[in-house]
Specification:
This protein is mainly α. α1 runs antiparallel to α2. The radius of gyration is 19 Å and the shape is rod-shaped.
């Protein structure tokens, strides 16, 4: 069985950055939804999105 090629520092850094971005994405979408709801004066929807954001 062949051994896996050791990862370079650049590859490790790139993978870590992608993991962080994947984690941020749902929170960013919820934040955008909150602002859209507030701008349209729909505060109940904004509160529900805020609740989702807090439970992420």
């Amino acid at each position: 069985m062949r051994r896996a090629k050791p990862k370079t520092k650049r590859e490790i850094k790139h993978n870590e950055k992608r993991e962080v971005q994947a984690h941020k994405k749902p929170a960013q979408e919820e934040t955008n939804s909150i602002f859209k709801a507030i701008m349209s004066c729909d505060y109940t929807v904004a509160l529900s999105h805020l609740n989702k954001l807090l439970t992420l």
